[in-house]
Amino acid sequence: MSFFSCNNEQSINNKSIQSAMIPTNTQMPAITEVATLGGGCFWCTEAVYDMMNGVIKVESGYSGGTVKNPSYREVCSGMTGHAEVVQITFDPSVISYADILEIFWTAHDPTTLNRQGADVGTPYRSVIFYNSPQQKTIAEKSMKEVATQLWDDPIVTQLVPFKEFFKAEDSHQDYFALNGSQPYCQAVISPKVKKVREKFSSKIKK
User: Fold this and answer.
1) Whole-angstrom Cα distance, residue 93 to residue 163?
2) Is the Cβ–Cβ distance between 195 and 104 less than 8 Å?
3) How do strand 33-39 and strand 83-90 relate by DSSP bridges?
């Protein structure tokens, strides 16, 4: 049996981010909101939200640790305390924070402590970093009323206040869009993208 993990993927593509499928004519709405979520390997989470209507930008990075501007390898070691996260900028008039969270519960397993598949350790913990008291309230409600309906086992997702976000190295941005044929992408990310695409078909960008 083959095991694929974000940490042991060796073929990181260094293509220019300009080659990613990012619209250049997107007009920024008057009001935007930011969600910061950790659902295991950030390559997976980024790929899921990139295709959602109302999502303006998704950046992979690190939150919740004690070291300034950590590197990917430092975070993977588990010594910095960071989680791999995505920072999602979205238009709340198109997609709500509650919608963002429903997708979050669907795209990863919030019942496995410090683990998503073969990715094991605190960097891969399930965590919501709320950016406002309103987000905290919505997250608490979503965890009780949505997550528990999707999963039988107890939810272990952390709910903590947002402090800092450190953007990951360029090679980790738009990873699935640039490296879709890589083994990890095919074995781990593609099934998650397919699952979310099927469930939230009405919310996918045209």
Assistant:
1) 25
2) no
3) antiparallel
Do 195 and 202 form a contact (C-beta atoms < 8 A)?
no
The owner of tokens 């781990």 is: 188
> What is the span of the domain harbouring residue 38?
30-191
Residue pLDDT, tens place only, 86-97: 999 999 999 999
Q: Is 119 exposed, middle or buried (0-12, 13-18, 19+ CB in 10 A)?
A: buried
Q: Annotated active-site positions, please?
A: 41
Taking the CA atoms of residue 137, residue 93, residue 32 and residue 190 in that order, the dihedral angle to the nearest 10 degrees is: 80
- d(Cα 49, Cα 138) in Å, to the nearest integer? 19
DSSP-derived pairing of the beta strands 158-161 and 165-167: unpaired
Q: Which of 28-32, 98-102, 159-163 shows the lowest per-residue confidence on average (mean pLDDT)?
A: 28-32
In a domain, 110, yes or no: yes
Residue 15, in any domain of the structure: no
